[in-house]
Write a structure and sequence with these properties.
about 140 residues; mainly alpha; globular
């Protein structure tokens, strides 16, 4: 997977990422990956100019990573979801609910990251208040 991503993202600079569908497809096709690849993807994918469909697919993949055995992968997935929610208000309430749950039950690193992400997303929410959870 590292090599296929390297091939897709190749070029003299990072602005040559013009192959968004292939990058998102690679993300979906490779369920076996290292934590290192996932944390780089968590930084990269939310910054790509994704269509609505591509963004939904990427969000679904990162939501799946929230169930990974690796706490690093789960923490990076939280970060990616917060980035998506920051850029797309339609995702915000769903992501806020997930982050709230993970902040209460996750590892110490997940709780710390969750507090930072929640604080930022709440500040970006109109009215600046926390949205109620739907259970």
């Amino acid at each position: 997977m590292k090599q296929s991503l390297r091939d897709l993202l190749g070029g003299p600079d990072r602005r040559s990422i013009g192959r968004v569908p292939k990058v998102v497809g690679t993300l979906r096709r490779h369920p076996r990956r290292t934590a290192e690849v996932v944390w780089h993807l968590a930084q990269l994918i939310p910054r790509l100019p994704l269509s609505r469909t591509q963004r939904r697919r990427a969000v679904a993949v990162f939501e799946g990573y929230l169930r990974d055995v690796s706490a690093i992968v789960r923490t990076c997935a939280m970060q990616a979801l917060a980035e998506f929610a920051s850029a797309d208000a339609a995702l915000r309430s769903r992501v806020l609910r997930r982050l709230r749950r993970l902040t209460a039950t996750g590892t110490p690193a997940m709780r710390a990251r969750g507090r930072r992400l929640l604080s930022r997303l709440i500040a970006e929410t109109p009215g600046g208040r926390f949205l109620p959870s739907r259970r």
